[in-house]
């Protein structure tokens, strides 16, 4: 999943929360000037509202990640080109006990699967970054 968490009282807005959480979880200080914008808010499975923030971190080779082991088990990246290959895209179908069904996107990468809210945010980002290609 992406860095994230609850807004602290010291956070001015969703962008400030995202920048703080990225610093706390990944050890990456992202400048507010690197923020491209905020996607539409989404509900999570617990009824909380998630406000995805998109930022340009620059070349991955230039990043030094220092993940917080109390919050992050593993870090991996996926190139945009990988996400755009149809063989790496799919959908997962869910059905609830009441019979309600829904479908969510999934992105494949070897042992890793990007699914759930992370895949939804990834899909929304791809629709903005490469309209007509995704």
TrEMBL record:
Question: Keywords on this record?
Answer: Hydrolase, Magnesium, Manganese, Metal-binding
Q: Which cofactor does it need?
A: Mn(2+); Mg(2+)
- Could you tell me which residue ranges the Nudix hydrolase domain spans? 1-109
- A Pfam match is NUDIX
Instruction: Name a GO molecular-function annotation.
Output: coenzyme A diphosphatase activity
**Which InterPro entries does this chain map to?**
CoAse, NUDIX_hydrolase-like_dom_sf, NUDIX_hydrolase_dom
Residue ranges spanning the membrane: these are none
User: Per the record's keyword annotation, is Iron included, yes or no?
Assistant: no
Q: Does the keyword Oxidoreductase apply?
A: no
Q: What is this protein called?
A: NUDT8 protein
Name its species: Loxia curvirostra (Red crossbill)
Q: What is the lineage of its organism?
A: Eukaryota, Metazoa, Chordata, Craniata, Vertebrata
């Amino acid at each position: 999943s992406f860095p994230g968490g609850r807004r602290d009282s010291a956070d001015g807005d969703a962008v400030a929360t995202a920048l703080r959480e990225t610093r706390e979880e990944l050890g990456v200080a992202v400048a507010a000037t690197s923020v491209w914008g905020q996607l539409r808010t989404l509900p999570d499975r617990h009824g909380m509202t998630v406000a995805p923030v998109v930022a340009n971190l620059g070349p991955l080779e230039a990043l030094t990640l220092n993940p917080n082991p109390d919050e992050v088990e593993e870090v991996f990246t996926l190139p945009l080109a990988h996400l755009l290959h149809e063989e790496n895209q799919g959908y997962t179908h869910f059905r609830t006990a009441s019979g309600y069904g829904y479908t969510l996107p999934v992105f494949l990468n070897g042992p890793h699967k990007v699914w759930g809210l992370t895949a939804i945010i990834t899909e929304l980002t791809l629709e903005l970054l490469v309209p007509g290609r995704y």
